[in-house]
């Protein structure tokens, strides 16, 4: 097939390898495998807003005003009578009609690394099987290979490993949403003709080795190079450029990294990307919890609210699932450093879009927030619900490298009131 933009065949374009002047990071190259999407009117997508460190549920979506454990913050009414959130989330409160708050999340994993793995994969880490994260599962199940953008994009953080699914389903990582894509132009002194010559030369050097060894990794490598070149020349690259949005839109999200990433997530979903994870660090508030949480929420509140509102106004909310969560919650007790410690026993998550029934709270905690009072929701239950919203059959199996069948979710139950 002839590529008119460079005057060569596709095979000629990919006949090269890692020694070009492009300068992709290794993580970006791995994320450029077969995870590419094309806009579709009925496409399903998911945006995960990941709060690294574990946010305090009491100081966000499960306030306990008037209790000794309630802390410094008051609660405020939302747009749904009877539902309250913490006082520094006024914009989110106005979007409550589209939100469902789960206040009865519960798990046993209180270590950061183990909990991050568990809440991303739905499986407790075993040290043997490397389970894929939800982003990789969505990428595999909803993948459309005909487009030119990665299906799974991680913004402001590394995302989670694709595990047993392999590098074809690894995230395309952008560490800084304010500087999203570097090195997509030809290097200095490298013309398009010289670039194509390098592609051909590299493939010539590698062809003998690839032919005699014949391992799957080499075929994946070829696909990586092909996709990298396709991305370089894709007109959809503009989806990563939030400066193309009107100033009023950018201001609504906020000008920080998190706001820019949420806006970029909406633009990526519009262009067919299936899964976007937006990471916000800083929630591990063992000390100075209240000042730090207040500051974090000055970025979270406008960005989260603008994302939900923007998706609704652009007609994408019905087909885009938005998830807000961290690896666990924080202790109702306030420690001697005015902080809160790890608390997996009872915490909160928030869902919106993709068939989620908004304007409700699922489950509750006791008056002091120490325990789940009713309707406990486990991490596998949450994952079964996410799969249901995304039209993914969670009873399907993937195979480990040794051929062991691994179910997509660990036998969770869909939360009936949500979908």
Please give a quick description of this structure.
With 419 residues, the protein is α/β, with parallel strands linked by helices.
Please write out the topology:
Layout: E1 2-3, E2 8-9, H1 10-14, H2 26-30, E3 36-37, E4 45-51, E5 75-77, E6 84-86, H3 90-94, E7 99-105, H4 112-121, H5 134-142, E8 149-150, E9 152-155, E10 172-174, H6 192-213, H7 216-232, H8 247-253, H9 257-270, E11 275-280, H10 289-313, E12 320-326, E13 329-330, E14 342-343, E15 347-352, E16 360-362, E17 364-365, E18 372-374, H11 379-389, E19 397-399, E20 405-407
Parallel strand pairs: 4-11, 4-12, 7-16, 9-10, 9-11
Antiparallel strand pairs: 1-2, 3-8, 5-6, 7-15, 12-15, 13-14, 17-18, 19-20
Helix pairs in contact: 9-10
Could you characterize what this model shows?
There is one protein chain. With 419 residues, the chain is α/β, with parallel strands linked by helices. The chain has 2 domains: 1-25 and 191-240, no CATH class; 31-180 and 241-407, Alkaline Phosphatase, subunit A (3-Layer(aba) Sandwich), CATH 3.40.720. 31% of the residues lie in helices and 17% in strands. The chain is built from 11 helices and 20 strands. Strands 10-9-11-4-12-15-7-16 form an 8-stranded mixed beta sheet, with helices on both faces. It has a two-stranded antiparallel sheet with strand order 1-2. Strands 3-8 form a two-stranded antiparallel ribbon. The radius of gyration is 22 Å and the shape is globular. The termini are far apart. Mean pLDDT is 88; it is low at 1-27.
User: Are there runs of 5+ residues with pLDDT below 50, and where?
Assistant: 1-27
Main sheet: strand order: 10-9-11-4-12-15-7-16
Shape: globular
Determine the number of helices (DSSP H or I, runs of at least 4 residues). 11
User: Could you name the CATH topology of the largest domain?
Assistant: Alkaline Phosphatase, subunit A
CATH architecture of the largest domain: 3-Layer(aba) Sandwich
What is the SS-derived class? alpha/beta
How many beta-strand runs? Answer: 20
- Give the number of domains: 2
Give the C-level CATH assignment of the largest domain: Alpha Beta
Radius of gyration: 22 Å
Separation, N- and C-terminal Cα atoms: 45 Å
Percent helix among the residues?
25-40%
Outline the biggest β-sheet: 8 strands, mixed
How much β-strand is present in the residues?
15-25%
Question: If you average the pLDDT, what whole number results?
Answer: 88
